């Protein structure tokens, strides 16, 4: 089986605190050869980078502030992200973006936080790792003007339909697909979009410990793990009418190229 890369998992989440080593070992046994740990706040980004530094052969990280935490973004936060971005283990700026579904931070704070991180990404020439929920048009309006100055952009945990996919693809963005695609109820639009994503713009992720595939085998724990990535791969391959090996090959090649992984 072709080595898989999980482009987004929250490995520093508290739910992994007691068995993180076992989680990583199960992932490797399942064929997940590299994992990119998501930074969602200054503290989480520092923890993700520290963990990635311990195992550079298998781990990388991102550095950024999730829109839920936008209200806490400050000059000190920006300094932390910029300092972390200088480390070889940090391969993208984010998770950053807009989330108008829950609005844990106001839309105004979210926009200011995203604007600052897009500028950081442009300055340090790292790609952006984007989050969007119920904010597609607003995110596109902010991303389009700055996109030519960015090293790259991936919409993490893309859950939209074909039209949203086309809009992101028109900006030369990549799309990260999670276990959301395994849910035939709320994931129908995504299932339609997956079939039309160009092979050179596709990536795979689990977003563990969240988004456990709805159709996971009976007895699968509710907490998602990176070892579930082959299950996501299988669903994507079926929807695209390709073999898992074909999808794994392009997704891994895309990921290595995008994030500059060896």
Fold blueprint:
Elements: E1 4-9, H1 20-29, E2 32-37, H2 42-54, E3 59-63, H3 75-85, E4 90-99, H4 107-124, E5 128-133, H5 136-146, E6 153-155, H6 162-170, E7 174-177, H7 188-194, E8 202-204, H8 229-240, H9 244-259
Parallel strand pairs: 1-2, 2-3, 3-4, 4-5, 5-6, 6-7, 7-8
Helix pairs in contact: 2-3, 3-4, 8-9
- Report the β-strand fraction as a percent range: 15-25%
CATH class: Alpha Beta
Largest sheet, described in full? 8 strands, parallel
- The run of helices and strands is EHEHEHEHEHEHEHEHH
| Count of separate DSSP helical elements | 9
CA-atom Rg in angstroms:
17 Å
Fraction of residues in H or I helices = 40-55%
End-to-end CA span: 19 Å
Which fold name corresponds to the CATH topology? TIM Barrel
> Low-confidence parts, pLDDT < 50 over ≥5 residues?
none
Named CATH architecture:
Alpha-Beta Barrel
Backbone shape: globular
Name a few traits of the molecule.
262 residues; alpha/beta; TIM Barrel; 8-stranded parallel sheet; 9 helices
Structure description:
By secondary structure, this protein is of the alpha/beta class. It has one domain: TIM Barrel, CATH 3.20.20.140. The protein is built from 9 helices and 8 strands. An 8-stranded parallel beta sheet has the order 1-2-3-4-5-6-7-8. Helix 2 (42-54) runs parallel beside helix 3 (75-85), helix 3 packs parallel to helix 4 (107-124) and helix 8 (229-240) packs across helix 9. The longest helix is centred in the middle third of the chain and has 18 residues, at 107-124. The protein is globular. The mean pLDDT is 97.
